[in-house]
Amino acid sequence: MRDLKWKTLKSEYLFKDMWFTVRKDTCERPDGKLVTPYYVYEFPTWVTAVALTEDGKIILERQYRQGLGETHLEIPGGCVDDTDKNYEEAIARELLEETGYAFTHYEYLGKTSANPSTNNNWMHMYLATGGKKVKDQEFDDNEDIDIHLVSMEELKQLLRDNQIVQSMHVTAIMYALSKLGELRF
């Protein structure tokens, strides 16, 4: 197989912030052609989970998203913090903060990228089971989340009706449905 990896000759940061950084690279392809400028968006690592309660309900979150200017249903998740020891601890923290539920089991489903051509981060996906409400939600400053508990059939119908539009969340849901024997290829 041919080596298709580019060599980064130079990087310049154009914008740096806690949640979003833009970098301008000068790259060389294996055939010697220079690619400049090439913009890369740096984001923190993300985690998300399809979260099932003790009685088999799926936890969905309804929240406003400024990028689209719309309110939609999603699954819980967020950024990995420096204080998180690993991805499982990060998703457990996010679930507890956003939903108030604690879970007895976490199964890693893999990772996905929103757009590997420009984004440098991964989202790690989990199936969390045995959820029990143990406290009130604790939002970050910009969060305002309504919790909705749905059945497996209701979740599938939401997917069929294109009511869950966050593509990485749809990916995580599909992996979880497959793991649960609810999706067959």
Automatic annotation (TrEMBL):
Classification via InterPro entries: NUDIX_hydrolase-like_dom_sf, NUDIX_hydrolase_dom
The keyword Zinc is annotated on this UniProt entry: no
PROSITE patterns cross-referenced by the UniProt entry: NUDIX
Cofactor(s) of this protein: Mg(2+)
Domain Nudix hydrolase: 42-172
Keywords: Hydrolase
GO molecular function, one term: hydrolase activity
Catalytic activity: GDP-alpha-D-mannose + H2O = alpha-D-mannose 1-phosphate + GMP + 2 H(+)
Any GO BP annotation: nucleoside phosphate metabolic process
Domain of life: Bacteria
Keyword Hydrolase in annotation: yes
Pfam families listed in its UniProt record: NUDIX (PF00293)
PANTHER family cross-referenced by the UniProt entry: NUDIX HYDROLASE DOMAIN-CONTAINING PROTEIN (PTHR11839:SF18), UDP/ADP-SUGAR PYROPHOSPHATASE (PTHR11839)
Family, per entry: Belongs to the Nudix hydrolase family. NudK subfamily.
Protein known as: GDP-mannose pyrophosphatase
Species name: Niastella yeongjuensis
